[in-house]
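Quick start: load a record and inspect it. Here is Cytochrome b561 domain-containing protein:
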Amino acid sequence: MSRNTILPMQKLVVHAAILIFALLPLVSSTQKHTKKIIHECSDHKVLELSPKLSFQIILHGFLLWSSMGFLMPIAILVMRMSNRQQCGRRLKLIFYTHASLQILSVILVITATTLSVINFENFFDNTHQRIGLALYVAIWLPIVAGIFRPDKGSKRRGAWFCFHWLTGITVTLLGIVNIYTGLQAYHMKTMKSTSVWNWLFSAEVAVIAFIYLLQEKWHYIKQSGVTVGNDSVRPTDQETSPTNEKNELSSMPSPEPC
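Running the structure step on this input writes:
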């Protein structure tokens, strides 16, 4: 065989090898996609819901809504009530209420996770399960940070506060997102409508967000002289004199003890 014939054959073999290696990822991805379709079909067959399995899924969702979608946001709103609060007794009450709500929320998350591990198939092949796994790890960070908080006035107090606040807000937001993904996953698995629950939960989130923003401006609203049901008078609306000031001070009620 002449050299002129060997060179084109070598080029043909090289090109064929390159083509085969180029097609391997496509073949692999096609096989994975086929396996995923088969896997999803088998999952759909498994979730032809029996009354027992239906109750377990609803209970799992209710527990996670109670913890991530209700108790955690309420705990944040309660703790924000301590802003500009001077009474030591009220500060303690706010702190213990916040801590109790957080601990109860973690207990409910543990219960819901245990229920999921025992009764459901967890392949972590969808967004809801992956976020749920990350949340189960992250939910402990605010609790641990709260236990090991530095004393007031410590140099580490500022860094601790930023970490505790950031992890708490992040876990709460991810929990809210995961409730939506859970409703979507339930709809995809059972083909049952979840639009009513989506609307109700969205309304709750909107109310919580409104209260959160209102708390930020509530002190300013009170200082601006805005009252409910009464027309307040600002200091610039009338001329003041030393006599009037004395009369006003004498007529003011004494502050209530904490």
